[in-house]
TrEMBL record, chain A:
Its EC number is 2.1.3.2. Pfam families: OTCace (PF00185), OTCace_N (PF02729). L-aspartate binds at K84, R167, R221. It comes from Geodermatophilus obscurus. The keyword Transmembrane does not apply. It catalyses: carbamoyl phosphate + L-aspartate = N-carbamoyl-L-aspartate + phosphate + H(+). One of its GO terms (cellular component) is cytosol. Residues 153-300 form the Aspartate/ornithine carbamoyltransferase Asp/Orn-binding domain. Residues 3-146 form the Aspartate/ornithine carbamoyltransferase carbamoyl-P binding domain. This is Aspartate carbamoyltransferase. Heterododecamer (2C3:3R2) of six catalytic PyrB chains organized as two trimers (C3), and six regulatory PyrI chains organized as three dimers (R2). Pathway: Pyrimidine metabolism; UMP biosynthesis via de novo pathway; (S)-dihydroorotate from bicarbonate: step 2/3. Belongs to the aspartate/ornithine carbamoyltransferase superfamily. ATCase family.
Automatic annotation (TrEMBL), chain B:
Gene3D superfamilies: Metal-dependent hydrolases, Urease, subunit C, domain 1. It is an enzyme of class 3 (hydrolase). One of its GO terms (cellular component) is cytoplasm. It comes from Geodermatophilus obscurus. The gene is pyrC. This is Dihydroorotase. Substrate binds at H57, L58, R59, N89, N275, H306, P320, G321. Zn(2+) 2 binds at D149, H176, H229. Residues 46-233 form the Dihydroorotase catalytic domain. Its cofactor is Zn(2+).
């Protein structure tokens, strides 16, 4: 593993597989245990540096670090660092001086973790940067697919929705293709980036045509404010054309699973009965997130002192 | 003071001596001698007319922590410039006779290059109503170039009026071509790299659409139009078409758009953030070809100093812009002269003659710029060592800022001396003051 986890595009097949295998070992080691805690990172400090609100990602990382016995500090910098008056660099140097071994950063600016990595000696873990990447989300998605379907090679994954603004989609495109999956992006053309043709994926505007050939379908959150910028005419029209309801779900192959990174807009991109169906892995994804983040922290910090 | 330059290759021709006296070139010839003259050995050096920049941000008044008229003038002299146009987006904005005269006076006091103020087209660069263009033209600063640079004059009716109005002033509107509705939040060129990096895209069409509109307007009202920092292959095509139809349009390209591409953004280092953004290899190739064939008239630096804290940040929060004055000529040597696209006469044309003509600096006696290197002309010239190569060290630059995108890059060509009206501003590669 490299020193930082900045983007899924950085992970080669061996590294990515190592993370997933390590997460599986952690799951096995903790299965059935009353005390779900390993001593591996005792004495190490993990800082959660969150410039955007994201309770679920933050508590997932917090739980992961605590289960590895690390000391965890939550540094919430709501709004931008600039509006608070302290620059990202100064915050980085402060955390560095306090002896942070790892900084888990969530930031609204694409590339902020890359900048941070220039200024600190500890490991930087990207917990979502702007519309760029969210690599641990992709790792937990890959882990979930492998767990449910038993493999990733040749698995057909449809990623549906606001690809343009989605860091989850970007990370999954790189990670899943690295691991041998066949990815198809499904969205209205307005929500696909110009230049998507150079990505190693299929692209479709037609969800109904893709579903019968999908082993996993990953629904992305669509934010209501996109509607006001004419990315699509109305929530209802979006839902009709790109939402996953029970009728569409019936077109999936028998073993296929339905995924969502959360938080969901029930009734918008995913119908309630689909989200709660047996095909849905949505709750499982959350649980797997903790294991995968434990694996990432364990591999980056190596368990030994610096 | 009299200077005798020995053995310079004027525009790359055979070695000759140049005698500078009383602000003018007194003589050019073989084995000239003059008693009391300071001799400058120019063996192996190329003599070019003093460079003229149509697009410099000197930041004074308002951001003297990033650059002042004096520090920017020194950087310009070291780059071989003898005149620079100071852009209007200062604080306060150069939209009145008072502000342009202040900048002009600061330039005179520094005395290292002629600082020629650009006037804002609209009050406060807000794109709502015309600034007092006539008052700026009639001021001591004699403004002839008007620009809202940093902002596009996006309103087509207002742009039409500006183009028309400055005809009476022998002026030109220098347009920052960017359709703002297409570039809201834009961070870099829109394409496969912006898609991957998750940085909001700045589409080439946002520049090209405005240029297309403006050449049609300029033709319709019979006015002069100048297009700032052209950055795309499509823009070059539109300019070529417009010129073939006789539209009075001129255009500039920056050194960085001739050399760098959007690939630089992959580091997320905001030193490479600039507006318009760095584009693709194909765009760079088209810009070089356009400059070589004259479709693009001039190289203009868009020298944009920024304080450290405005660049040492997240990409999206950083200000756009990069330094350019001190490396402009080297980059033209690297991208056009060495590949054989432009000879030294071509360099003189694109970096001195044509920009001076666009700014109407070419016909004012001893104050003129962009004149040929000939007896009787103002002694504005530079001596370049084309064989020298040096690695760019931002800490060694004369600019007060350090946001050079060329840090660590080895570039050809070294300006050994610059003369402004016969007086050296640079000697032995160092500023005289």
């Amino acid at each position: 593993m490299k020193r930082h986890l900045l983007e899924a595009a950085d992970l080669d097949r061996a590294d990515a597989t190592l993370v997933l295998d390590t997460a599986a070992q952690i799951d096995q080691a903790l299965a059935g245990r009353e005390v779900k805690k390993l001593p591996t990172l005792r004495g190490r400090t993990v800082v959660n540096l969150f410039y955007e609100d994201s309770t679920r990602t933050r508590i997932s990382f917090e739980l992961a670090a605590k289960r590895l016995s690390a000391d965890v500090i939550n540094f919430s910098a709501k709004g931008s660092s600039v509006s608070k008056g302290e620059s990202l660099k100064d915050t980085a140097l402060t955390l560095e001086a306090m002896g942070a071994d790892a900084i888990v950063v969530r930031h609204s600016a694409s590339g902020a973790p890359h900048r941070l990595a220039n200024w600190v000696r500890g490991s930087v873990v990207n917990a979502g940067d702007g519309t760029h990447e969210h690599p641990t989300q992709a790792l937990l998605d890959a882990y979930t697919i492998r767990h449910r379907l038993g493999r990733l090679d040749g698995v057909r994954v449809a990623i549906v929705g606001d690809v343009l603004h989605s860091r989850v989609a970007r990370s999954n495109v790189w990670l899943l293709t690295t691991l041998g999956a066949e990815v198809t992006l499904v969205a209205p053309p307005t929500l696909l980036p110009v230049g998507v043709g150079s990505w190693p994926v299929g692209v479709s505007y037609d969800l109904d045509a893709v579903l019968p050939k999908a082993d996993a379908v990953m629904m992305l959150r669509v934010q209501a404010e996109r509607m006001n910028a004419s990315f699509f005419p109305s929530a209802r029209e979006y839902s009709r054309r790109y939402g996953l309801d029970a009728r569409r779900m019936a077109a999936l192959p028998d073993e296929a699973i339905v995924m969502h990174p959360g938080p969901m807009n029930r009734g918008m991109e995913i119908a309630a009965d689909v989200a709660d169906s047996v095909r849905s892995t949505i709750v499982e994804q959350v649980g797997n997130g903790v294991s995968v983040r434990m694996a990432v922290l364990y591999l980056l910090l190596g368990g030994s002192t610096r | 003071m009299t200077y005798l330059i020995k053995g310079a290759r004027v525009l790359g021709g055979d070695p000759a001596d140049l005698l500078l006296a009383d602000g003018r070139i007194a003589a050019i010839g073989d084995r000239l001698s003059a008693t009391g003259a300071t001799v400058v050995d120019a063996g192996g050096l190329v003599a070019l007319p003093g460079l003229v920049d149509l697009h410099t941000h000197l930041r004074e008044p308002g951001r003297e922590d990033a650059e002042t008229v004096e520090t920017g003038s020194r950087a310009a002299a070291l780059g071989g410039f003898t005149a620079v146009h100071a852009m209007a987006n200062t604080d306060p904005v150069a939209d009145t006779a008072g502000v342009v005269e202040q900048v002009w006076r600061l330039g005179r006091q520094a005395g290292l290059v002629d600082v020629v103020p650009v006037g804002a087209v609209t009050v406060g660069l807000r794109g709502e109503r015309l600034a007092e263009l006539g008052a700026m033209a009639d001021s001591a600063a004699r403004v002839r170039v008007f620009s809202d640079d940093g902002h596009c004059v996006a309103d087509p009716a207002l742009m039409r009026r500006a183009l028309e109005y400055v005809k009476a002033l022998d002026g030109v509107v220098a347009q920052h071509a960017e359709e703002p509705r297409l570039t809201a939040g834009a961070q870099m060129n829109e394409g496969h790299r912006s898609a991957r990096l998750g940085l909001t895209g700045w589409p080439a069409a946002a520049e090209e659409a405005v240029i297309a509109r403006d050449v049609l307007l300029a033709q319709h009202v019979g006015a002069r139009l100048h297009v700032c920092h052209v950055s795309t292959a499509g823009s070059v095509e539109i300019l070529r078409w417009a010129k073939s139809r006789g539209v009075q349009v001129t255009a500039e390209v920056t050194p960085h758009h001739l050399l760098l591409t959007e690939a630089c953004a992959e580091t997320y280092d905001p030193v490479f953030k600039v507006n318009p953004p760095l584009r693709t290899d194909a765009d760079v190739e088209a810009l070089r070809a356009g400059l070589a064939d004259g479709t693009i008239d001039a190289v203009a630096t868009d020298h944009a100093p920024h304080a450290v804290e405005d660049k040492e940040s997240e990409w999206a929060q950083a200000r756009p812009g990069m330094l350019g004055l001190e490396q402009a000529l080297s980059i033209v040597v690297e991208t056009l002269v060495e590949p054989g696209l432009l000879d030294w006469a071509g360099v003189a044309d694109r970096m001195s003659v044509r920009p001076a003509a666009i700014g109407r600096l070419d016909g004012r006696g001893l104050q003129a710029h962009g004149r040929p290197l000939a007896p009787g002309e103002p002694a504005n010239l530079l001596l370049l060592d084309p064989a020298a190569r040096a690695t760019v060290d931002p800490a060694a630059l004369a600019s007060r800022s350090r946001n050079s995108p060329y840090a660590g890059r080895e570039l050809p060509g070294r300006v050994v001396a610059t003369f402004l009206r016969g007086v050296p501003t640079v000697l032995d590669g160092k500023a005289v003051r």
